[in-house]
Amino acid sequence: MNLNKNEKNVILIVDDLPNNLKILFDFLEDYGFKVLVAEDGESAIEIAENASPDLILLDILLPGIDGFETCKLLNSNPATQDIPVIFITALIDKLDIVKGLNVGAVDYITKPLEHQEVLARVNTHLRLRNLTKKLTEQNERLEIEIFERQQVEEKLRNHSAALGEWKNRYQALIQASGQILYDWNLDTNDIQYGGNVEQILGYSMPEILGGFNRWLELVHPEDRNFFNEEINRVLSTKERFHLEFRVSHKDGTYITVENNGYIFLDSTGKVARMAGFVIDISDRQAALRDRLQAEQKIREQAALLDITTDAILVQDLGNEIQFWNKGSERLYGWMAEEVLGKNANQLLYQKQNLRQLKNIQKTLGENGLWQGELRQVTKQGQEIIVASRWTLVNHDRDQAKSILIVNSDITEKKQLEAQFLRAQRMESLGTLASGIAHDLNNALTPMMMTVQLLEAKLPDEKSQQWLAIMETNVKRAADLVKQVLWFSRGSVGNFKTLQVRDLISEIENIIKQTFSRAIEIHIDIPTQNLWNIFGDITQLHQVLMNLCINARDAMPHGGILRISAKNFWVDSHYARMNIDAKMGSYVMIAVSDTGTGISREIVDRIFEPFFTTKELGKGTGLGLSTVLGIIKSHSGFINVVTEVGKGTEFQICLPVTQAMETDSKLLQERKLPPGNGELILVVDDEDSIREITKTWLEQNGYKVVVANDGMDAIALYTKYEQEISVVLIDMMMPGMDGLTTITILKKINPDIKIIGVSGLASNHKMLKMLGNGVKSFLSKPYTSGDLLINLQMVIATK
Questions:
Q1: Which pLDDT belongs to residue 668?
Q2: pLDDT tens across 242-300, in order?
Q3: Cα–Cα distance, 484 to 494 (Å, whole number)
Q4: Cβ-contact 565, 526 below 8 angstroms
Q5: Strands (E) located in 351-430
Q6: Per-residue confidence (pLDDT) for residue 650, from 0 to 100
Q7: What backbone torsions phi and psi does residue 121 show, to the nearest 5 degrees?
Q8: pLDDT digit string (tens) for 351-363?
Q9: Which value, to the nearest 10 degrees, does the dihedral of the CA atoms of residues 221, 222, 226, 229 take?
Q10: How many other C-beta atoms lie within 10 A of the C-beta of residue 60?
Q11: What is the DSSP letter of 203?
Q12: Number of C-beta neighbours around residue 316 at 10 A
C-alpha cells in the first residue's frame, strides 16, 4: 500500500535528545504520519500500551533502561509485542546488531540519519505490519463467515426436510411456485400470496396484503427503478419476468430474492394477470460473495508471499520445484521461470551438504515438520546459511502431496556470531595470558635487580661472565613475556606517524637477504597517494616479519611471497560483516603465499596462543597471537583468506586516522647521585621484590619501610607521613589493590608522591592511574637503574 497524508499511521519516536526528536518529528509529520515522542524507555512502554502505535523508532542509548531492555519489555508484553521496533544506532559497537536482532527488533537505522532511508524503512515495515493486520482480520472474518455459512447450510437442510412433506401434497404447485407464490390481478391491482411468506419475509399474510404498491414498498429503494423498468418491459413484450433484487424483511434487514413471473392474457389478448414465485437466494449470493472474497484473499496472500523477504518455495516429493516466490529470486539469484520443474537438491546444495537432507526427509515422514539450519549455494556459487522450516502438505485423502519450505537468510548473523564467539574465546585466552605475564614479571623483577647487585659485589671475571649470561636470559624471558602482553593488549608502545612504503621496504631488504632464493619476493605498493598510519614501528616490524616467516615455512619447496599495500575504505556493509571493523579509512597490508594453505578445521584457532601446527621445537605458537594483539592495540583488524593447496593471504587493516598522539619522552641513561636519606615506602605482595628493592635502595642512600598489602601500607603511611618522601606501590595485589590504596592515601595527603608498579599495564590504564596521583610508572621487570631514575625524578617534582 502507498502511505500518504490521508492515512494517519502512528509512529512513536524514542530518543533522549530533544534535537533528534524534533528533526524526526517534523520530517515524519510532513509525510502525513501521526507522531508520538518519548525521551526514555519507561515512557515509551507506557505510551505504546495506551496508544498502540504502528511502529516504534527506538534509540539504543537512553537514560534508565536502554533500548535493548526497552525492546525486550515491549516484546514480552502482549499489548505491545506485535508493534515492530526499528533501532536507531551509531553502530559504535557491531555487537549491537546481533543483540538488537536477538531482543526482537525488525531492523536498524544507522546515524547520522538519511531521511529518505528512514522514510523507506518506515514505509516498508508499516506496509508489512498493515498487510499482516489486514490478513489476520480477513482470516478471522473468513472463519466467522464459514461458520455462519455452515449454520445456514444446516438450516437449509432442515428446511428441505420440512418441505418434503409439503412437497408430497403440493407437488405440482411447488414446481411452479417455489417458496412464495403470488397472483397479481392487473385490473384490481391486488396480489394474492401463498407459500411461506412469513418464514421468508417475517410478515404475516394480512401484513403483506395491499396490492402492487405494498410489494413495491418492500423493494429496496436502490432497486425500485430497475424493478419498475423490468415490469414495464414484460407488460409490453409479454415475455417472462425474471429479476434478482432486494426486499425488506420485517426485522429491517434486506434479503436477496429471485422473482420468476408468467403473463396470462384475457380473451382480447390483453395482459390480465401475472403469476409466479419468489425464491430467497440470499444464501446463494452469500456463497458467491464468499467465493469471490476467498479468491481475493488468495490473490492478496500470494502478493504477501512476494512481498516477504523470506524465500518461500514448494517442491513435490521428488524434489521438483513447483512454486518460487520473489524472495527466493532475491536470495538465490534464479528467476522463477529458470527453476520451476528443476530438482531443488541439484540447484541449492553442494554434495557434502546433501547428507543432511536424508535426515530431514525422515523427520518429515514421522512428524510432518522440520526446522533447522542448512548450508546452500546461490546461482553465483556463493555459500549461504539459511534458517529453514519444512512442512509436509497432504491431499484431501491425507496423503503426502508436497513440501512447503520457508528459508530465511542468516548468513550475516552466523558470521557475526562466529566472530563474536571467537572474540570471546580470544578475550578469555588474553585474560589468562595477561595473568601469566603478570606473575612472570613479578618473578623476573627480583632476578634482574639481584643480578645487578651481584655485579657490584662479585668483580672477578668468571662471576661477571655468569652474571652476564643470567642477565641475558632474564631479558630473553622478559621479551617472551612482552609477546604475551602484546597478545593480551597490555603492552605500551611508542606510537608515531609512519609511512607504509618505508615500513615494507625495510622488511623487503631483510627477507631478500635471509630467505631462500627458491622463494620469489614480489612487492606491490602504489607509487603515490598511499595513506600514512599511526603506530609503533618496532611492533609493526614484528608483525610483518612473523607473517613473512610463516609464509616462508608454508612454501618449503619455494613459491611466491607477495607483500602489497593499498588504501581501503570500510563501509557499513563491510563493518557489519566484521566484528572488529569500524567505518572509515584504512591501509590494507597483505602478506600472501602460494603454499599449503590452512584447512577450515584449524583456521579459527590459528590466533590462539601456544597453538601451532609446526613440529616440536620449531614454533612457540605465539607468533600469530602476538600479531593479533599488536594489530588490535593499533585499533586495526585482520582477515585471513586461505585455500588448501593454493595458499594463504593475511590482510592487515590499520586505521588512517590518528586517534591518539603519544610522543613519549624516553628517559635517557644517566648517572644519578645517591639518595640523601629520604624515606621510601615500598608496597608489594611479593616477598622477593620487597627485599631486593629494600636492599638496593638502602645501598644507594635511601631509608626504606616495606608493606605487604594495602592495609599495611595505609597503617605505615599514617605512622610515618611526615617522613615518607615517595610511595613505591604495586598496582595488582590481593585484597586491597593498588588503585584503592592510592585513593585512600590521597585522602590522607593530597600532595603524596607515588610511583606505580605493575607487571601488566596498557596505555589507557596507565593514564587512568596517573590521573589518580601517580607521578611515574614502572613496568615489571625493571632494572635498578630504571628504579633510581624514576625515584630521583619524582622526588625532584613539586
A1: 41
A2: 989 999 999 989 989 988 889 898 888 889 999 888 888 888 888 777 766 755 665 55
A3: 18
A4: yes
A5: 369-377, 383-394, 400-409
A6: 93
A7: -70, -40
A8: 777 777 878 888 8
A9: 30
A10: 22
A11: -
A12: 15
- Residue 241 CA to residue 186 CA, distance in Å, equals 15
The residues near 549 (Cβ < 8 Å, ≥ 6 apart) are 623
* Number of helices (H), then strands (E), in the chain: 27, 27
- Identify the sign of the CA torsion 589, 595, 599, 604: negative
Burial class (CB in 10 A: 0-12, 13-18, 19+), 92: exposed
Closest CA to 257 of 203, 183, 200, 199: 200
Residue tagged 497432504 (cell numbers): 394
How would residue 306 be classed by pLDDT, with cut points 50, 70 and 90? low
pTM for this entry: 0.34
Neighbours of 231 (CB within 10 A): 18
Residues 32 and 119: their CA atoms lie apart, in Å, by 11
Helix, strand, or coil (residue 521): strand
Residue keyed to cell 489476520? 136
The CA-to-CA distance between both ends of the chain, in Å, stands at 74
Q: Which cell is 384 given? A: 549461504
Give the strand pairing for 241-248 and 254-265: antiparallel
**Which residues, 6+ apart, have CB-to-CB distance to 261 below 8 Å?**
182, 184, 234, 240, 241, 242, 274, 275, 276
Quote the cell numbers at residue 634: 593499533
Q: Copy the grid coordinates of residue 450.
A: 639481584
- Three-state DSSP class for residue 787: helix
Which residues, 6 or more positions from 402, have their beta carbon under 8 angstroms from its beta carbon?
314, 315, 316, 317, 322, 393
Amino acid at the residue 499: Q
CB 684 within 8 A of CB 727: no
Residue 385 forms beta bridges with which residues? 375
What is the bridge-based pairing of β-strands 519-524 and 400-409? unpaired
Q: CA–CA separation, 82 vs 55, rounded Å?
A: 10
Contact present, 575 and 581 (Cβ < 8 Å): yes
